[in-house]
Amino acid sequence: MSENKFSIDDFNPGSIAEKIAIRMKAKRLALNMTQKTLASRSGVSLGSIKRFETTHRIALQSLLQIALVLDASVEF
């Protein structure tokens, strides 16, 4: 299954957050952007970005700020 598709088993908050985190990290890497650069450009702390990429937990406001920097608000 593509990582951009959801299955019926994926409709729980943990799975959805994981898929969003995977997409965000892939987009960041595709843009050749470090976590530190993303933190600086988005105003989200480096710790929050690291935590999101590993535990998939982040405040909605922070996720939106990251999505704007990555030009990925529709994708998320």
Quick tags:
about 80 residues; mainly alpha
Description of the molecule:
This protein has helices at about 15-30, 35-40, 45-55, 60-70. It is an all-alpha fold and about 80 residues long. It has four helices and no strands.
Largest pleated sheet: none
Secondary structure: number of strands: 0
Query: What level of helicity do the residues show?
Result: 55-70%
- Straight-line distance between termini: 18 Å
Described by the principal axes of the CA atoms, the overall outline is globular
Strand content: under 5%
Instruction: Specify Rg, calculated over alpha carbons.
Output: 12 Å
Q: Name the assembly state.
A: single chain
What structural category arises from helix and sheet content? mainly alpha
Are there runs of 5+ residues with pLDDT below 50, and where?
Answer: none
Separate helix tally? 4
Q: H/E series, N to C?
A: HHHH
Mean pLDDT: 89
